[in-house]
Structures are given as C-alpha cells and as structure tokens.
C-alpha cells in the first residue's frame, strides 16, 4: 500500500521482524519494497546506522538528481548559444558575401564607366576634328554664297547643327573628364545672379526660381562657363520633373570638411552648392543610374542622358564631389562641393612662350601641322581666306625638317595629339631651335598640360578665332629676324603658333 502511493514509491522501508526469517522470506520482503531488515530485539546503534545510511543515500540521490537537472539545463543553454552563434555566423558570412559581391559589382561598374569614359573622350576628340572641318567649310561657303538666300538658310541650319554637335561634344568630354577647363576664382552668388533671368526664361512661368546664399561666401575655383552650363542643366532637369509647375531653389553655403566627413573629399574648405526642386522625384533604381551616361527618363528627342554625367564630370574634375537625394512625389536635391579659391587663383599666369602683341595687319606664312588631312585642309582654307599663305605637314618631324631648311615661317599651327611627338613637345623643340617664337596649343580636351604656359585655341575653333589670333601677332624684332635669316639664308621674319 505504501508503494502504491506516488509520493512514497522511492521511500526507503526497513522491516522490523521478531521472527526468524529465511532467505525466501527476505526475497518476498524485497519484492514488496523492503530495502533492509532489523531483527527484534532492535539494537539502537544498528538501527541508527541503517537509517543514517539510507538518509545519506537519499540526500546524495536528490543532490545527484539536482546536479543532473542543472547539467541538462546547462547543456540545453549551451546548445542554444551554439545555435545562435552558428546562425549569427551564417548571417555574417551571408552579409560579407553580399558586401563582396556588391563591391565587385561596383568595381565592375567603375571599370565599365572608365572604359566608357575613355571611349567617349576619344570619340568626342575625333568628333571635334570633324566639326572643325564641317563648320570651317560651311563658314567659307556662306561667305561665297551671299547672293543666294535660300542656300544661306540651309547653310545656317547646318552651322546650327554643327554648333549643337560642339555643345554635345563638350558634354561628352566633361563626362570623360577630358573637357578643357579654365578654372578661376568665381563668386557663386554673382554668377547665379547674372544668369537668373536666363534660367527663368529657360524654365518658363510655371516654375519659380529662388536663391538662398550664405553671406560672405569665399570664391570657389571652377570654370565659370562650365558651372553656368551645369546649373542650367540641373535647372532644366528640375523643370522637366515638375510638369505642373513648382519651385527650384539654388543654395550655397560654406562648409569646412574634415577627414572622412564627406566620402571622396580631402579635408579643407568648400562651398556646397545645391539645386532643389519640388518635382516628382526618383525611385531607387532611377536614382542609382542618374549619373550614368546616356541614361534618361525623358522621351525621345527630349534629352541626351549626358546632363547629370556632365555635371558629375565637371565637379570631379574641379576637385569636388556630387551627391543626389530624391524621394518620389517629394522632389530631388542635387548637391556638389567645390573647393574654395586661394588668393593667388585670381592671378593669371604669365605665358612662358613669346608674347603675342598687337601690331599692324600683315600677311603671314603659316605652317599647319596635323595628322588629320581633313582638319589640316579645313584650317588651311580658313587661313587662306584671311589672306595668308599656308604650308601643310602631317607630322612633327616633317614640320621640324621644314623649319630647319626654310625658317621663313611666321606661324605654326600644330595639333596637340599626334603620333610620335605631341604639339607641346614640338613647340618645345621649335623654341630650342628658334627661341623667342610665340606658341599656342589648340586642343579640345585637358590632355594638353597647363604647365607649358602656352597660349591656346579651343577646338573646334572658327575663322574668327584665327583672325583674332593673327591680329595679336607682330613681326619679330629686326635683330632677331636678321640673325635667323642669316643662319638660314633667308630674309623673312619667323613666328610660331603651336596647336
């Protein structure tokens, strides 16, 4: 009966018996739940010893059970910790793998954009040469067809198309970061104020333009013409994002940037310029691709996809960075940081070549050096139409050979990017052989080094640019002319213009 109760199923039971028991009786007692026997008369010491043993055994058993339960709890807790650590490790591995894949994708995109930029810059440079030939010949044709108004209208249309092509080329070169820039100290407040009316005409009456400039802004160092073009592009983009009208706000404030404050910026003082609109905004995918070249959400004929790429290229080439924030239905904010101008930036460097001085009009003998026969022919035609004589050479070595035998040349126009020897190298060699001659580099991108200090022509240059250049060229001093003529057996003066 005692064993049937759940509470006493494991309780130790000592049988006390006054009769002699045999082994069969002991076995029957054990089967009924006895754990020991004490005969009568009971010896107290024996009974106490047996009780003490069973009490200690009970205590040890309970302690062992508690230890076992605690061990099981610890094992379960440690197993759960290991499971959590394993799950966290798997999550970290997955995150690192994803970050690595994203980094590889970014590197791939950077390489792709770099390759595309190099391709774009090369194409734009070649296109510049084509535009020189096209625009130059169209201008000459226009001069000889003044009595044919219908043809003149067609020529004017072709010239306008060529000029639009030149603008597109500038944008492509800006994206490729090869655009010829002329950075100088620029007061951003005055620049925006001078073009605010043009911006308002460009966006129309439905869009309001406001400005918010910090007072006393330090001038920034940037090409003012390219900055105007960038602000115009951003404002027109903002207008297109507000078909029902809205507001565009142009802001500028001074900002001291520390190490790591803005990714991609070196520590220093900058001016942060922003263009904010209240338009439709962009989703994440559009925002991610916003500065990709030729990417546009506008319809056919309404955008080239180079506007933001040009702005990004200009900012990067000027030593700044560009950031875009946008939320659908809220609007878009384009901000870019440009470095402030040092005090010396307002000073123009003195050219290292011979100065060009205004003098009496005269006819010059011009040596045109260009590896592109079409460009050379177009340039020669424009120069001859101005009343000067032209000799053409297709390489720097041929030009030097010509000058060594017949130095009766007043002007040398040389392409900058030529195989074997660049235009600046050719100019340096000419200055070594014929010191004191003026040299001008004509180029359409920033591959031509600035440190040469040579006067420059920007491609595609027009006939009026050449005419202005000839107007600044004067005969060399008599002593220098006589010395050179004596050395070459000639009596004419010499001058050099480098491209």
Short description:
The protein is α/β, with parallel strands linked by helices and 499 residues long. It has helices at residues 23-32, 44-144, 149-175, 188-203, 224-240, 284-288, 307-317, 373-385, 396-405, 423-433, 463-472, 478-488; strands at 14-17, 36-39, 184-186, 207-213, 220-222, 246-257, 268-277, 321-327, 331-339, 365-369, 389-393, 411-414, 441-443, 456-458.
Q: Secondary structure elements and their pairing?
A:
Layout: E1 14-17, H1 23-32, E2 36-39, H2 44-144, H3 149-175, E3 184-186, H4 188-203, E4 207-213, E5 220-222, H5 224-240, E6 246-257, E7 268-277, H6 284-288, H7 307-317, E8 321-327, E9 331-339, E10 365-369, H8 373-385, E11 389-393, H9 396-405, E12 411-414, H10 423-433, E13 441-443, E14 456-458, H11 463-472, H12 478-488
Parallel strand pairs: 1-2, 4-6, 10-11, 10-12, 13-14
Antiparallel strand pairs: 3-5, 6-7, 7-9, 8-9
Helix pairs in contact: 2-3, 2-8, 3-7, 4-5, 5-7, 9-10
Q: Topology as H/E string?
A: EHEHHEHEEHEEHHEEEHEHEHEEHH
**Largest sheet data:** 5 strands, mixed
N-C termini distance = 120 Å
Mean pLDDT: 79
Number of helices: 12
CATH C-level class of the domain at 186-346 is: Alpha Beta
Strand content: 15-25%
Q: CATH superfamily membership of the domain at 186-346, which one?
A: Histidine kinase-like ATPase, C-terminal domain
The total count of strands amounts to 14
- What level of helicity do the residues show? 40-55%
Radius of gyration: 45 Å
- Please tell me what the overall shape is: elongated
The neighbouring-strand order within the major sheet is 4-6-7-9-8
CATH topology of the domain at 186-346: Heat Shock Protein 90
User: Architecture of the domain at 186-346, CATH level 2?
Assistant: 2-Layer Sandwich
Given as residue ranges, the uncertain stretches (5+ residues, pLDDT < 50) are 343-360, 476-499
Secondary-structure-derived class = alpha/beta
């Amino acid at each position: 009966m005692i064993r049937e109760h759940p509470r006493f199923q494991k309780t130790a039971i000592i049988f006390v018996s006054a009769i002699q028991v045999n082994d069969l009786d002991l076995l029957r007692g054990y089967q009924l739940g006895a754990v020991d026997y004490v005969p009568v008369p009971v010896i107290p010491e024996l009974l106490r010893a047996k009780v003490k043993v069973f009490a200690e055994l009970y205590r040890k058993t309970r302690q062992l059970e508690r230890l076992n339960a605690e061990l099981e709890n610890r094992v379960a807790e440690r197993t759960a910790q290991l499971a959590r650590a394993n799950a966290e490790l798997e999550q970290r591995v997955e995150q690192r793998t994803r970050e690595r894949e994203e980094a590889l994708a970014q590197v791939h995109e950077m390489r792709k954009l770099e390759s595309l930029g190099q391709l774009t810059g090369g194409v734009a440079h070649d296109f510049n040469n084509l535009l020189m030939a096209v625009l130059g010949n169209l201008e000459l044709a226009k001069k000889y067809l003044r009595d044919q108004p219908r043809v003149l209208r067609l020529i004017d249309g072709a010239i306008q198309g060529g000029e639009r092509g030149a603008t597109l080329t500038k944008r492509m070169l800006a994206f490729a970061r090869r655009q010829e820039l002329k950075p100088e100290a620029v007061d951003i407040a005055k620049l925006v104020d001078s073009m605010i009316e043009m911006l308002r005409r460009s966006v129309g009456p439905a869009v309001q333009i406001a400005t918010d400039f910090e007072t006393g802004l330090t001038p920034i160092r940037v090409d003012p013409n390219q900055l105007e073009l960038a602000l115009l592009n951003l404002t027109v983009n903002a207008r297109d994002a507000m078909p029902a009208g809205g507001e565009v706000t142009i802001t500028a404030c001074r900002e001291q940037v520390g190490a790591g404050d803005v990714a991609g910026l070196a520590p220093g003082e900058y001016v942060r310029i922003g263009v904010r609109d209240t338009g439709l905004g962009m989703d994440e995918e559009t925002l991610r691709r916003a500065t990709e070249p030729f990417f546009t959400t506008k319809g056919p004929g309404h955008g080239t996809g180079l506007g933001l790429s040009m702005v990004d290229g200009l900012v990067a080439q000027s030593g700044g960075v560009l950031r875009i924030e946008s939320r659908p239905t809220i609007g878009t904010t384009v901000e870019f940081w440009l470095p402030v101008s040092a005090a010396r930036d307002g000073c123009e460097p003195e050219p290292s070549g011979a100065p060009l001085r205004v003098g009496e009009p005269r006819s010059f003998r011009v040596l045109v050096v260009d590896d592109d026969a079409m460009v050379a022919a177009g340039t020669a035609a424009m120069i001859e139409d101005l009343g000067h004589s032209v000799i053409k050479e297709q390489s720097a070595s041929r030009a030097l050979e010509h000058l060594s035998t017949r130095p009766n040349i007043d002007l040398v126009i040389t392409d900058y990017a030529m195989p074997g020897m660049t235009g600046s190298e050719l100019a340096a060699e000419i200055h070594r052989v014929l010191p004191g001659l003026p040299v001008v580099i004509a180029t359409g991108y920033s591959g031509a080094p600035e440190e040469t200090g040579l006067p420059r022509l920007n491609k595609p240059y027009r006939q009026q640019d050449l005419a202005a250049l000839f107007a600044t060229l004067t005969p060399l001093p008599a002593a220098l002319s006589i010395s050179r003529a004596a050395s070459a057996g000639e009596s004419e003066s010499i001058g050099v213009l480098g491209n």
